Amino acid sequence: MIRTMILGGALALASAAPLAAHDYTVGAIALDHPWARETAPGQKAGGGFVSIHNSGKTSDRLISGSTPVAAEVQVHSVNMDGGIMRMRRMTDGLSIAPGETVVLKPGSFHVMFVGLKQPLKAGTTIPVTLRFQKAGAIRVQFAVQSLIGGDHGSH
Amino acid sequence: MARTDRLRLLVLAVFASLTPLALSACGTAPQNKAEGPGSAPFTLSGANGRPVSDYTLKGKPYAIFFGFTRCPDVCPTTLARMAHLRKAMGADGAKFAIVFVSVDPEHDKPADIGRYVDLFGTPIIGATGSKAQIDAITKNFGVFYQKVPQPGGDYTIDHSAIVILMDRKGHFAGTLSDSEDEKASLAKLKPLVA
Ligand SMILES: [Cu+2]
């Protein structure tokens, strides 16, 4: 009984600690430093960025997501060939190879919050559930960053 | 159709398709400024309800960038970078204007653009226009943009990610690339405000 309580307490601590460290794990998938850009009132879309590591032996796939602050969460790629920005929805999702880290960052991939119901305010966090084909759903808090103060994407 | 007409059309088509790439590849002004990017008159609707045109912009150098507010990536990166460069120039930073033109007038109304540019903590002139005005100004500046339907019925817009510099007389003065470092960009901005 006491052992169960201690174990329970330890588990609660274990699940609380990663939140503060911006570090989330489900199965073989670990997410680090989720952040989003602030948006203006009336702006209909915003971008979210996060680092995804697959420590498993098989590849996994970020397929979709959801958030209470937007109608949809889509996975997008950005290509800058020839000085032209081309953004595309990745309907088949984004593959994360075994042992690899894929960083969603400006100029490569992002999750797009489509149909924002409210502006993303700098200094707040937004709850987002990301869905992986194998690892399943993982709930993360995206920290909203101000657009003032330089290029966050170079982190 | 006469043979020369067809040839002329072909030459025009090649020019139109090459301009955005040529712009991104070179950062120096062409010989004949009267024919360079941005040399033709243009008029847009400003975020504050007043027109923004070659005439209203004259007298102060400006950096102009084309995008749309639903672009979560290169547009905010570029505008934040311009705001940062202005700050790095100290007092000289106020001596050039930053202009953001939305190529998505269907979605971005002038007031939306105003609220968007306000996020960057420095004065940015926001503007857009009718499809005809946007077609004219992008052609004028040699900027590529294209509406692309996405699965699910929505659309996105492919567009040049280049910042074009114009001097205080309204002549093309170079470009800034997102891949160059801060020093290289400042070296292009400083002579503009000198
Ligand atoms: Cu996107």
Protein described:
The complex is a heterodimer of chains A (155) and B (194). By secondary structure, chain A is mostly beta strands. Chain A has one domain: Immunoglobulin-like. Chain A has 1 helix and 11 strands; from the N terminus they run αβββββββββββ. In chain A, strands 1, 2, 3, 4, 5, 6, 7, 8, 9, 10 and 11 form an 11-stranded mixed beta sheet that branches. In chain A, β1 and β2 form a beta hairpin. The radius of gyration of chain A is 17 Å and the shape is globular. With 194 residues, chain B is α+β, with helices and mostly antiparallel strands. Chain B has one domain: Glutaredoxin (3-Layer(aba) Sandwich), CATH 3.40.30. In chain B, α4 links the parallel β4 and β5. The N terminus of chain B is likely disordered. β6 of chain A pairs antiparallel with β7 of chain B. The complex binds copper (II) ion. The site of copper (II) ion has 4 residues of chain A, from β9.
**What kind of sheet is the major sheet of chain B?**
7 strands, mixed
Beta-strand content bin of chain A = over 45%
Whole-number tally of structural domains of chain B: 1
Question: Strand count, sense and closure of the main sheet of chain A?
Answer: 11 strands, mixed
The CATH homologous superfamily of chain B corresponds to: Glutaredoxin
Helix/sheet category of chain A: mainly beta
